[in-house]
Amino acid sequence: MRRFLLVCVVFLGVILSCTDRDDNVDSVNIRIKNQTDFNFNEVRIVEKDTVYENISAGGLSEYYEFLSAAEEMGLTIVTDSTTLTYTPNPLAIDSLPIGFYTYELGIDEENQVEFNFRIDY
Predict the structure, then answer these.
(1) Measuring CA to CA, which residue among 76, 87, 86, 81 is closest to residue 42?
(2) Burial of 43 from C-beta contacts in 10 A (0-12 / 13-18 / 19+)
(3) What is the pLDDT of residue 60?
(4) Segment 72-117, tens digit of pLDDT
């Protein structure tokens, strides 16, 4: 009987400790990926007045939660040497469904922001 009770407790503990990051998701979660060779001091999502700070070259930020968010949103990127802005296509106005997403940001040879949207699974 003890052995059965011990097995039940262990099994219950394993089941309760196994959670996935999307088990209790109730919002749009967005992170920033820095695809440049220099650090981003600040990335500001203009429409949401949200600031991601200190994203290293090639690094990822933490996910920030939003009640609603578009596939593309206006951004301001601040580095040590410059400030860049990204204005999205005006057609990208629909809100994303609940889930996890990444805005991949790069800068081309003409100092224009390259914006790539990715769905994280």
Answers:
(1) 76
(2) buried
(3) 97
(4) 999 999 999 999 999 987 765 678 999 999 999 999 999 999 999 9
Closest among 28, 22, 24 to 47, alpha carbons compared: 28
How is residue 16 written in tokens?
């309760």
**Residue in the block written with tokens 């790069």:** 106
Q: How many CB atoms lie within 10 A of CB 57?
A: 12
Residue with tokens 């099994």: 11
- List the structure tokens of 40: 């981003």
How many CB atoms neighbour CB 36 within 10 A? 17
Q: Residue 76 corresponds to which tokens in the numbers above?
A: 């301001």
Quick: pLDDT tens for 20-64: 444 568 899 999 999 999 999 999 999 889 999 999 999 999 999
- The topology under which CATH files domain 26-120 is Immunoglobulin-like (2.60.40)
Half-sphere exposure at residue 116, Cβ-oriented, CA atoms within 13 angstroms: 12
